[in-house]
Amino acid sequence: MSLNKRIFLGEFLGSCFLVMIIVGSGIMAENLTNDNALRLTANTLATGAGLFVLITAFTDISGAHFNPFVSLAMYLTKRIKGKLLIIYIPSQIFGCLFGVMLANVFFEHDIIELSTKSRDGLNIFLAEVVATFGLVFIIFATIKDGKTIVAACVATYITAGYWFTSSTSFANPAVAIARTFTESFTGINYLNTPTYIVAELIGALIAVFLIKKLILK
Questions:
Q1: What stretch of H or E contains 48?
Q2: Are 113 and 183 in contact (CB under 8 A)?
Q3: Alpha-carbon gap, residue 67 to 15, rounded angstroms
Q4: What are phi and psi of 14, to 5 degrees?
Q5: 114 FRET partner, CA 20 to 30 A, in 76, 127, 184, 216?
Q6: 133 to 18, 141, 202, 205: CA distances (angstroms)
Q7: Residue 167: which pLDDT band, with cuts at 50, 70 and 90?
């Protein structure tokens, strides 16, 4: 199989499973309890565990980016060529969208539904900048240590990020787009999605700037 096909399929499948895990575990938690703390705990544990497994499994297939701004950071630091962005980014977005549709169907929701869950405010914008900065920086700070270390660090960082940020650390524009289409605990109102994406881009670009100064010097 060609490299482009491997990247597309790997990123599509990994992104699909990532969103299935995030959204599916959120709906399951919502179905089982009215306690928001328990819901977030269940969602956090499932997401962290899923990230570790997915990154470990897909790193040697596609690089396990699962995130357009991680791919952009890889390009800006010359780890991938620009022409690969047109493979990475669509596969991640399509994978995330397919994942949210599957998760909705699993739990007898409409296959596509617009979220009404509001996630707005300057505090949330700032939190999402920081969340994405941390994710991208941690990936580059640990990448030399191998896929298992990267997987563990990313998984535990996002696990922590669910709790220390008011945005719950989406840190991923493809995930933000997908979560617009579930009317569940993990959803985001479509009016707030662009704000999240702008915040994530700012965080990723700040991370790239500091990565070049501190890690790739």
A1: helix 36-62
A2: yes
A3: 8
A4: -65, -45
A5: 127
A6: 20, 12, 8, 8
A7: very high
Q: Residue for token digits 């959120």?
A: 26
Domain ranges across the chain: 3-214
Distance of CA 141 to the CA centre of its chain: 18
Question: Which of 1.10.8.60, 2.60.120.10, 3.60.15.10, 1.20.1080.10 would CATH assign to domain 3-214?
Answer: 1.20.1080.10
Please state the rounded mean pLDDT for residues 94-122: 97
Widest distance between CA atoms in the chain: 51
Q: Per-residue b/e over 26-49, b at no fewer than 16 CB within 10 Å?
A: bbbbbeeeeeeeebbebbbebbbe
* Mean confidence (pLDDT) of the chain: 97
Which among 155, 134, 4 has a CA at the least distance from the CA of 70?
A: 134
Residue 9: its H or E element: helix 3-32
For residue 56, how far is the Cα from the chain centroid? Answer: 15
Write the DSSP assignment of 71-140 as a string of letters. Answer: HHHHHHTTSS-GGGHHHHHHHHHHHHHHHHHHHHHHTT--SS--------SHHHHHHHHHHHHHHHHHHH
Amino acid at residue number 125: F
Q: State how far the Cα of 160 lies from the Cα of 54, in Å rounded to an integer.
A: 18
Residue 193 pLDDT class (50, 70, 90 cuts): very high
Q: What is the pTM of this model?
A: 0.97
188 in the Ramachandran plot: left (φ > 0), alpha (ψ -120 to 50) or beta? beta
